[in-house]
Amino acid sequence: MNKDEMRITICEPPRTFALAWTIGPKESLARFDLTPEADGCELTLTHSGVPIMAANARAGWHALLEALPDAVEGRSTPWELKTARERALRGIYPGLQA
Predict the structure, then answer these.
(1) CA-to-CA dists, residue 64 to 21, 38, 54, 93, 98, angstroms
(2) 97 pLDDT exceeds 70?
(3) Per the domain annotation, does 60 fall within a domain?
């Protein structure tokens, strides 16, 4: 897979969706699983293959997931707001250890 390519590896609506792409020398996989709950659903995000240099990935995903309520309502979140959220969230996530 080329560095800039992303591919869908799992598409099982409405429960599971997964994407793979390359980060540095490793393939990275992001998997989204929905589990029904009484009042909606629970989203579990699993991101594997993240190199140590991508320690900010957790804050990045957190910032992107904060945009979901707007997306459900058909509103887009400006990229500048996403990056501001990510910067603000970095301090709550400890660094990854080698």
Answers:
(1) 17, 25, 16, 15, 25
(2) no
(3) yes
